[in-house]
Amino acid sequence: MHKITETVLKRPVTTFLVVVSLIFFGIMSLMNQKMELMSDIDMPMMIITTTYGGASPEDVDKLITKPIEDGVSVLSNVKEVTSRSSENYGLTIVQYEYGTNMDEAYDALKKKIDAIKSSLPDGADDPTFLEMNMNDSASMYLSVQNPTQENMYNYVENDIAPEFNKL
User: I want to staple 45 with a disulfide (CB 3.0 to 4.6 A). Which of 8, 37, 74, 132 is the partner?
Assistant: First the structure.
């Protein structure tokens, strides 16, 4: 340690150039580093939704959500299946293991849902499903409900959406 101190004190110009070089290359490294506000998130999951007009949450759970949940839980690479049943509506989230080929998972899920459709009650809409990709999605989803459904589209389109577009 004594030799380093002695060399630094005997050669101030060399020491200065080494320090300036380290600072310069450090700044250059920081400037070339890729920075993102939100980095890519790979969440392999599918969301299945089904509507059943006029049904109670219990009926939706028993007649819609449970059969879908039981059917998709046996698919390969499924890590977890969670569901939620509410009045007129059932939602099932299928989470896959990381590294799953989502194109193949989508095809397998579509086949399974097509097989389940025939066992769903009359009056239930066909299940719809979509791949959840956090990298392509919005930062926020907004749900608007109105018991009468009167002019809700116009209200959202003319009053609410312009306020969000100002952000």
Answer: 132
